[in-house]
Design goal:
It is built from twelve helices and nine strands. By secondary structure, it is an alpha+beta fold. The chain has two domains: 92 residues, Phosphorylase Kinase, domain 1, CATH 3.30.200; 189 residues, Transferase(Phosphotransferase), domain 1 (Orthogonal Bundle), CATH 1.10.510.10.
Length: 336
């Protein structure tokens, strides 16, 4: 088993860790379990800078590990591109671009990248550990959040997106999985892996559309050039799902979902559930306009609308969180 303090591998019957000497937890199963080879390899390629504790998750592109920064004794998350993808030049570049994109952005509601490395077929990036998980964790299984909580989270995300947009970056993959929460319940945007800026060309010469179908804007689904209003649409889809427990459009495959984003109008949230305030529903529906010019022009415009809703909803805690997020970027610019 792995030592919970230093991460070293020990035989199942070991009473104390062979490296740091702390007492190992009691276990009734004395059979030896072989160490995870991916953990062992990751320890080697990171050069001992991190104590790799265990794997915490896995997605279509990467595996995620919980670790400790040895020098700072702080928890981190290491995202490792799957080996078969790491051997593909395009995927390596996409992963590298996530680190480059996020490293340019210094904002309280954008998750920063603190390290990046490519060693042979191992490509990884390191981010701070967010103790409260993702928005997807909170709304999975058709669960929903209150309109007030939804508005506060979306306002924080919107201010982070506005900051990125003003620096020429469009996220292009806003979804619940890419919204994290810190210990104070602040929302942060992560995964700028397919973000593009005015200085970037398309990654795929074949015109492949990158993103997640349920959250794609109509113009993204059609392979058009994008600006920040595409992310506003994606955040509108996230708000819709957070309020109701399901996204506005679904289908049998990616094509059918994308087709609905382009051609169909979503049913307003307050029509689906009459308990949702009309003001909040109107904000969501404006984000979901097919024509980008009819959406909120900027993330801060959306944040202001959400803050105004919270000011009339007697949601003091949520109002304070959203209002603080809205003022933070202005202070950062003024200080510079």
């Amino acid at each position: 088993m792995f030592c919970t303090d230093c991460g070293s591998w020990n035989r199942g019957e070991a009473a104390r860790c062979v490296r740091c000497g702390i007492r190992m937890p009691e276990t009734n199963d004395r059979r030896q379990s072989p160490p995870d080879p991916s953990v062992t390899a990751l320890r080697q390629v990171t050069g001992g800078r991190y104590t790799i504790m265990h794997r915490v998750g896995e997605g279509g592109m990467a595996s995620v590990y919980y670790a400790l920064n040895v020098a700072l004794d702080s928890p981190v998350v290491i995202k490792v591109l799957h080996p078969h993808l790491a051997r593909e030049h395009e995927m390596r570049e996409r992963f590298k671009r996530e680190a480059e994109s996020a490293a340019q952005l210094m904002h309280p509601h954008i998750c920063k990248i603190i390290d990046f490395g490519m060693v042979d077929d191992h490509v990884f990036l390191v981010m701070p550990y967010m103790a409260r998980g993702t928005l997807s964790d909170r709304i999975g299984g058709h669960r929903s959040l209150t309109p007030e909580t939804t508005a506060a989270v979306a306002a924080q995300v919107a201010t982070g997106l506005d900051y990125a947009h003003r620096r020429g970056l469009v996220h292009r993959d806003i979804k619940p999985d890419n919204i994290l929460f810190d210990e104070d319940e602040n929302a942060l945007v992560t995964d700028f892996g397919i973000a593009t800026g005015h200085f970037r060309s398309r990654m795929t010469g074949s015109g492949n559309v990158m993103g997640t179908p349920h959250y794609m804007s109509p113009e993204q689904a059609r392979g058009k050039l994008l600006d920040g209003r595409s992310d506003i649409y994606g955040l509108g889809v996230v708000m819709y799902e957070t309020l109701l427990g399901f996204p506005p459009f679904d289908g049998a495959d990616s094509y059918s979902i994308s087709y609905k984003h382009v051609t169909e109008t979503a049913v307003a949230p307050d029509v689906v559930d009459s308990r949702i305030p009309q003001q909040m529903a109107a904000i969501v529906m404006r984000c979901l306009e097919k024509n980008p010019s009819q959406r909120y022009e900027r993330g801060n415009d959306l944040a202001d609308a959400l803050i105004n809703f919270l000011s009339t909803a007697a949601a003091h805690h949520e109002f304070r969180m959203a209002r603080t997020a809205r003022s933070a970027p202005t202070q950062a610019v003024a200080a510079g």
